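Put briefly, the fold is written as integer tokens. The lines below illustrate.
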Amino acid sequence: MTSDAVAVTQKGGDWFDGGIWIQLHRHTYGSTHDRINELWNQSYTGIGECNTSLAGSLDANQTAQVRALRAYLYWRLLDGFGRVKLITAPGADAPQSDRQAVFDFVEAELLGALGVPAITASLDLSGSPLTTEVNNYRINQYAALAIIAKLYLNAEAYTGTPRWQEAEWATSYILDNSPYQLCGAGCTVPNLAKRPEVPSDPENLEGYSAIFAPNNEGNPEIIWAVDFDENNTANGGMNFNMMTLHGPSQLTWGLDAQPWNGFVVLEEFYNSHGTDDGRRQMNFLQGPQTDFGGNPLLDYAADDDDLVIDYKPPVNELEPNAKRDGGVRMGKFGFAVFQRQNMNNDYPIVRLGDVHLMHAEAASRAAGDWSLALPEVNVLRARVGAAPLTTMDAASFLAERGKEMFQESSRRTDQIRFGTYEDQWWEKTDSDPNKRLFPIPQGQIDASGGSLTQNPGY
């Protein structure tokens, strides 16, 4: 929401919500922002569960998994807030650590789970308590390596000291030793969004689109994912369908509730996808929409005399009266007929396509030569039918990451690493570099007895 990819537009009385979405988009967020506070609270809730588990009776493998999971949650806090408390026992408190100390803790915990003192070119994980078992919902050696690669890839942004070489070594080990494969030709699942009377709906999803389908469990590209389940409230919360689709889209797939019509894709980001790039169709919903029988989908509360819902890239304004069907919509995580408000799609935290991009970037930065990224970038482009690139620089690589990783919670972090987070984009002017960190929630500061202080600029 704070990146150049997506916005929530205010449509009259809908989606204003006290201005919280506008503040995220324009980088005017402050220390009482609900969504930012949720990031803090949910991360520490997960850390608390990890601490409770570690205080119990776990074997070596379970202990390593929980340590790695806790390290991942602290990595999220490091990335979002920088200076946080490193609490490692149930009911305990701790002083506020600086960003370097949080980085060091995350690194040490992941190295401990991997059973090595450092990431090197000749990595030997034979002593790791983590296994190599393929289970998308458990952290194995490859998932832990991918998490530490994310840490090293952003080390310069976090601490001022680049760690490109370690990021390259960690991702090289995954690529050379893991059983995971890119989901390309022949990697298919039935299309659960197929409407019986609409011949243009494909029977199957193949390649890139299959990775994010409602039936993507066991996909060969996914290394570690969140197990969302529409029938299990404890595993609920995956609701991109409700976030982005127009209300009458309930009639497109026979959804059990009317969507909320909030999230739209920014026109410039959509246009960054070339017309030959299959991700342009797979990532977004664009054009006139139809109902379950393939008939034009109508909005009887339309704000003009054209009742047909037609998702077009331009959006007239962020607020206060954005068009109800303005903007291309998020479609990467596929829908299903008769879908509930919660979706079944597993949400990848780590997948092999991302590992290739991390490896390509780390190798290029370590050598000072962006052309080294071309082979891996072109493999991913070939998968979606896009022509190979012949030249590469930092800007074009960031654009490729945006296309491949859209809607996978990486764009803000990528923009900070590439130095574009303060740039201007639609309805946003240049922002303060202090916004690279979110504010420490004011409620946490007030309750801390002076042990938490605010980040600069808030």
About this structure: The longest strand covers residues 222-226. The beta strands are 6-8, 188-190, 204-206, 222-226, 263-265, 284-285, 287-288, 310-311, 329-330, 347-351. The chain has a mean pLDDT of 97.
